């Protein structure tokens, strides 16, 4: 069976029919991967979530069929496009292509945006304070801050291209949430303020914490501190724009003691 018209029963056959006005029997058609290869390819590579297969419709449907979208069957070929994305099958659709040409890959710009993000190598916070070798005291304000670089704080920009579409993405940390190990959590919307001796016992104006107990009861006598950064990524390309989010973590062990009063 090469083609079943709208008047035919769409449920007849062995599963080759799609919910359209006619169905394609893959057994009598040509398959292409959109890159000029024949039989058995799927569009994209392992870095692209969207995978598409194109099957040429043979014989061609009538010229008045809506799948042609007004194009001339004498000058064009018709392909059935079937795509899957992360294990979920998307509805099949038809693509009209000039005779002798391969279909242009149908790529989701967001997939290209994710590919650009993957190329950035985004990392967790580069913690400058608290330091694992530092000495911290109950009741004394702790200042927290991070070093800034393209891979640990941003901004970080990368592009990805495929099928004639280019998407550019820019990533930057929008917040860092500190889990202090004593049950407290501190959310900071900037990299924090580096401590200077002139600040004395003042609290950090942007990102800090005051411990009310020692870390003596913790594993190895330290508090496990985790800094979790949220990367906000804005992207645009392929006549679209959007936003993605990535999360990264860094851990450090912090010792907190008490001031010993000598009488």
Order of helices and strands: EEEEEEEHEEEEEEEEEEE
Rg over CA atoms, rounded to whole Å, is 29 Å
Structural class of the secondary elements? mainly beta
**Beta-strand share of residues:** 35-45%
How many structural domains does the protein architecture include? 2
Number of β-strand runs:
18
Given the structure, what is the number of helices?
Answer: 1
Q: Helical content, roughly? A: under 10%
Largest sheet: 5 strands, antiparallel
Principal-axis shape equals rod-shaped
**Low-confidence residue ranges:** 1-48
Query: Terminal Cα separation, in Å?
Result: 100 Å
The overall pLDDT, averaged over residues, is 79
Main attributes?
single chain; 263 residues; mainly beta; 2 domains; 5-stranded antiparallel sheet; 18 strands; rod-shaped; disordered N terminus
